[in-house]
Amino acid sequence: MIKSLHKRESELANSKRQLEILSNGIFQKGALPTFKEKISETNQFPLKAKKLEILQINVGYMCNQVCSHCHVDAGPDRKEIMTRETMQQCLDVIKTTGAHTLDLTGGAPEMNPDFRWFVEEASKVGIKDFIVRSNLTIITANKKYHDLPEFFKKHNVHVVSSMPHWTKGKTDKQRGDGVFNASIEALKMLNAVGYGMPESNLRLDLVYNPSGAFLPSNQKSMEKDFKKGLLEEFNVQFHNLFAITNLPISRFLDYLIASENYEDYMYNLVEAYNPSAVKNVMCTNTLSVSWNGFLYDCDFNQMLELPVNSKAKHISDYNEDLLEGRNIVISQHCYGCTAGAGSSCQGSVI
Ligand code: SF4
Ligand code: SF4
């Protein structure tokens, strides 16, 4: 108990430290405009939440991988896991909202002991798009996960998986040795039950994010390259590629600072700022629920411990009237969502 309290305190201190980095330095010196100043230029401040369309639930930070860019700081030693009671509170909300998409994330969500129960219950609610963010390697990591492709199929889950590149070197550099081969094996298992095949309704999408301090290039042209590379080299198929910008938070922010790339990266994000992406940033129609049930405007704010600006702070207090129209909590990391074609958990926003 004391150990976990200390851990929580050190996480809060880390979020505070990261927020200070994002608020001070180049932004405090006025070298770059703050995100608030930037969006005010086009009268888009304050950012307002619209009707809830996507409920994104983080069922725990435990993961079988420790990727260098991970914004959740997930790994095998993380013990934060959503309980069945909190899952039930989420289900109660899903039944009452008009949200069309449910998005389960982690860590590796499959490692939550109640994951399968939750998927079974949630799939009965009749949500239109039920996403599970699977890191692929979990499918091959242990015999007990080998039936996941069949399980996903049974519940008509839309599988969205990270795949930094269609070559081994670039993938293993970002996600760890052996990840590429395990991911290819998992993709073949998903293809074998119908996921990702051209005429199939079993959706399999991949997520690309850059392996260093640079922005993703055009999503459509990368998708073409990925499709060609994976099909020709490995006979693997998938539907869409989502290109995501790495936000300067968590492990990636630490990497930027350690590699002395932080300022250059922020300059690049600000230079690539696209005012038309602002109206489509995902926090305007999404709500993020943390493993312990607290509500955030997005997964990134969750990691920075920036709770929603509303009296309804927990999934058990969910109240559409209080949450719709709330002012979204922003900071300089938000530049990651408005660079170029914009970025969200579903890829480009333009
Ligand atoms: S697989 Fe995903 S959640 Fe796990 S460490 Fe990698 S980026 Fe983080
Ligand atoms: S980081 Fe979160 S709050 Fe900021 S613009 Fe992106 S989705 Fe919205």
From TrEMBL:
Residue ranges annotated for the Radical SAM core domain, each copy included: 57-195
InterPro entries to which the protein is assigned, alphabetical: Aldolase_TIM, ArsS-like_C, rSAM, rSAM_ArsS-like, rSAM_sf
Cleavable signal peptide: none
CDD domains, sorted: Radical_SAM
Keyword Iron-sulfur assigned: yes
Essential cofactor(s): [4Fe-4S] cluster
Domain Arsenosugar biosynthesis radical SAM protein ArsS-like C-terminal, chain residue ranges per copy: 215-348
Keywords, ordered alphabetically: Iron, Iron-sulfur, Metal-binding, S-adenosyl-L-methionine
NCBIfam families noted in UniProt: rSAM_SeCys (TIGR04167)
Name by which UniProt lists this protein: Arsenosugar biosynthesis radical SAM protein ArsS
Organism, as annotated: Mariniflexile gromovii
GN (gene name): arsS
